[in-house]
Structure formats: C-alpha cells, structure tokens
Amino acid sequence: MEPLARTTVVDTLERQIQQEILTGSHQIGSLLPPERNLAERYGVTRATLKHALGRLVGSGLLETRHGVGTRVRDYLRTGGADLLPMLVRYAPDWLHEVFEVRRTMGAVIAQRAAGHITARQSDELQDLLAAVGAADQPAAVQLADAEVHRALARATGNRVYLLLTNTLFNAYLPARQQLVGPFREAETAHARLAPLVRAVCAGDTEAAARAADAYLQETERIMLGDLGLAR
C-alpha cells in the first residue's frame, strides 16, 4: 500500500485560490488584492502565499506583471487541456463538454485503429478486454476499461491520439468514484465493450466507428445520470 500524500499549507492554499478563480469569485481579468492583504485574509505568511501564487501562474490561471500585480488570466483563451481536471472538480457541468469530445474523438480513434491495427495489437486488445470481464470490483473494471481505450489509441499509430486519450481520462479523474455506474458488473461491462473490440480487430472501420459511438453514448448516459447531470 502506497503512503498517503501529505497536504501542505501551500497545497491547501493553492486549491482554495484555484477554486475561487474557477467558480468566479475572482473574475477573469481582475487583479487580486495586494499580497499583504491576501496573506492576512488566508492567515498565511507572504512566503507561503507567493509559493501558492507561483504554482497558479505555472498552471495558467494567473499572471504577474511587475508594478501591476497579479491578474486572473483568461484561461479559456490561453489555457490548455491540462486545466480540465480543475474545471471538472469545481464545475461538474464541464463533464457534458468533456463527454462530447470523448464521443467524437472515440469514434475517430476506433475507426483509425481498425485501419491500422497489427496482429500483436489485436492480441493485446483482446487480452485487455478479457481483463475487463475478469475484474472483481467496479473500480478495477473501470481501470481495465480505460486500458482498452488506451490500447485503441496506441493502435492508431498516432501518439497524439494517445495523449488526447490520457487528457480526457485525467479530466474526469476528480469525479472517477462517482462515474463507476457502467462498471458495476464486470460481465455487463465486458459485453458492452466487446462489439467495439471485435470490429477493430476485424479491421472493419465503419463498424468500429458505429460501435464506439454506441458504447460511448451508453456509458455517458449512465455516468451523467448517476451524477444527476443527464440532459
């Protein structure tokens, strides 16, 4: 068992300011109060505050200018997909948009994988599918399912698809425990995913795209329903 990560004062302060930015307490384009005032407000030293603000500058939420101060960046204009886990954590409605991209990209990945998959990759994919059915806990089923999708991305032969797949998985990590609905029963999860794997392994690009779309729509419906976010 791995030791639990320790939460420092800087970690806590970073998350607090992060939350205030992403929930609109600090508006995009606004200047934060002077550091002395902020340190007093949060009950921390200025050194601790500077460390936390430095992290938020590094993550793209803040920018500092000498003689001006620290401003909330327009992260929707300048930020990257690495912000998605933070956005999902504090505004779960972002999941609708994450899942929309997941559906679109998933069908493209499945189609391309079917057209490029090798015999070795086909064997790996079928082994990973079997692991979904053999998993004994919902969380294990969920993780096994994720490995199938990583393998699909690898089979495209395009590493960018793999990085994008990782990005989307990371985006809903904050809500992962609430998204186990499609994975509560290993046998059902296996049966739901099997048509996609069969189509890709058979090299049938159109069937793979259709199977991916069906799979992703169904799992999305279950997950968003569990969160009370179904449309």
Provide a quick synopsis of the model.
The protein is mostly helical. It has helices at residues 9-22, 35-42, 46-58, 75-78, 84-90, 94-116, 119-134, 138-155, 159-171, 186-201, 205-226; strands at 62-65, 69-72.
Helix content: 55-70%
* Termini gap: 39 Å
Dominant shape: elongated
Quick check: average pLDDT?
A: 90
CA radius of gyration is 21 Å
Keywords:
mainly alpha; two-stranded antiparallel sheet; 231 residues
Describe it for me?
The chain has helices at 9-22, 35-42, 46-58, 75-78, 84-90, 94-116, 119-134, 138-155, 159-171, 186-201, 205-226, and strands spanning 62-65, 69-72. By secondary structure, it is mainly alpha-helical. A two-stranded antiparallel sheet has the order 1-2. The radius of gyration is 21 Å and the shape is elongated.
